[in-house]
Amino acid sequence: MFRPLAADMTPANPDEGTPVSIKIRERLVAARKRFNANDNIADFIEPGELELLLDEVESKMQGVLDSLVIHTDGDHNTKNTARRVAKMYLNEVFKGRYVEAPAITEFPNAEHLNELMIVGPLTVRSACSHHFCPVIGKIWIGIMPNEHTNVIGLSKYARLVDWIMGRPQIQEEAVVQLADLIMEKTQPDGLAIVMEASHFCMSWRGVREMDSKMINSVMRGVFLKDSALRREFLSLIPGRN
């Protein structure tokens, strides 16, 4: 009986059958790039791989449902839950990990604007990286421009917030990431951010405290040095006094 040689059994493509998540992870490790929950990894995902990753996450999620002893084949309510959850994580809730930063059109500060500008409240939709429970809240952004500051449209701040918050986050780190991004995009004299959010990991589980919220802030540049400017920004946030 004919038995194929070992060489005959070697796949034409050595990567064939390797889960796409492992391929992406190997690229990140080779580049010595961090891939924590709140990191963006879009540069290491090749065209078509997000669809393959969706299939992989669906398969793993089905395993979770099986381990929870949920009869998805017989339960019409959970029949396609694994696919729905995979799409929710990759295409919606954690989209900020897998897609590039939104395109932001920047304009020169032709009129040399140098007065305080506040944008907000902008809606925060995120999830805590400890339990993947929703984090829902508001953000206010204060900008102190100078003649060299890049001016961006008001809606673009909302897009940047959505991109940063669309990842598993803890609130303290999220506002710092957002501040770094806005400073890079606009180069102002000062930046101030205040975030107020409800954490479902505290209200839906654990102590189940329904009314508790977390408020934190980041101050950069002149907002750190000028206490009067800082007070002006905080006093102009509606409902925060």
UniProtKB/TrEMBL annotation:
Pathway in which this enzyme or protein is active: Cofactor biosynthesis; 7,8-dihydroneopterin triphosphate biosynthesis; 7,8-dihydroneopterin triphosphate from GTP: step 1/1
Positions of the GTP cyclohydrolase I domain: 75-237
Q: Name one Pfam family in it.
A: GTP_cyclohydroI
Q: Which UniProt keywords apply?
A: Hydrolase, One-carbon metabolism
GO terms, molecular function: GTP binding; GTP cyclohydrolase I activity; zinc ion binding
Gene3D superfamilies in alphabetical order:
1.10.286.10, 3.30.1130.10
- Quote the InterPro entries the UniProt record gives: GTP-CH-I_C/QueF (IPR043133), GTP-CH-I_N (IPR043134), GTP_CycHdrlase_I (IPR001474), GTP_CycHdrlase_I_dom (IPR020602)
Q: Which Enzyme Commission number(s) are on file for it? A: 3.5.4.16
Its top-level enzyme class, in one word, is hydrolase
Q: Which reaction does it catalyse?
A: GTP + H2O = 7,8-dihydroneopterin 3'-triphosphate + formate + H(+)
Quick one: a GO cellular component term? cytoplasm
Q: Which GO terms describe its biological process?
A: one-carbon metabolic process; tetrahydrobiopterin biosynthetic process; tetrahydrofolate biosynthetic process
Its name, as the record gives it, is GTP cyclohydrolase I
